[in-house]
Amino acid sequence: MEKVIKNEWLELMKKMPSLFFGFILYAMGILLMRDAGMGMNPWGVFHMGVANHTPLTLGQVTQLVGLIILLLSFLLKIVPGFGSVGNMIFIGFFIDVIDSLNIINTPTTLFGRGLMLIIGVFISGWATYFYLQVRLGAGPRDGLMEGLVKLTDKPVWLIRGIIEFTALITGFLLGGPVGIGTLITATTIGFSVEFAFKIGKYDSKKGVHTDIVQLYKMLKGTLSPEEVSQ
Q: Is residue 204 part of a domain?
């Protein structure tokens, strides 16, 4: 039994570099899209809008919104994974750390800003791959979407669209940055994620994510990975 528990802990530790590298990349992608000054994705617009009216930093707003969404998802009986909780905490943390370093400079030309935006989208695609491929849970917003789909029995595209549209409009009313970049990110992020998945040979339809309760049981030795995948 002790050997089994030790192996489960080792397996978890092996996943940490990929998980946290994904969080760092995601934070960098968000800042690149923000500093391009051409508009952000719907959730970025919302986070910036909230930050405009509070003393909170962008990273802190990202954490707070993530926490609220995580709690809403839990009420909808969606159990988060370790990666879901980490997503909520550390992406916001890394946003503020990287932002404080002042290493991102906005180009003076429209071409340069557009290139920065596209690089941000590209990096975000790879960030999604690195933190999802360890299968420790998706982000809070995806959990909320899943919960609402189950509750309403409506298609994913409709629920996702309503969530994104609500975040965008609310963020816009709060003064969040909406522009051509908002349209560009909305139409290219899916391709960026798909490209990263293809290169990394990650199939989101195969395998299952381990939620935080299952992970706890696995680390105690009372649940096997085979039982999780069933």
A: yes
Note whether residue 230 is domain-resident.
no
pLDDT at 18: 96
CB proximity list for 225: less than 8 A, separation 6 or greater: 210, 218
Residue 223: exposed, middle, or buried by beta-carbon count in 10 A (0-12, 13-18, 19+)?
middle
- At residue 17, φ and ψ (nearest 5 deg) are -60, -45
Instruction: Name every residue whose Cβ is closer than 8 Å to that of residue 214 and which is 6 or more positions away in sequence.
Output: 223, 228
**137 within a domain of the structure (yes/no):** yes
pLDDT of residue 8: 81
Q: How many domains would you assign to the chain?
A: 1
Q: Which helix (H) or strand (E) holds 188?
A: helix 180-200
Q: Is the pTM of this model over 0.70?
A: yes
Range of the domain at 150: 2-225
- Which is more confident, 88 or 218? 88
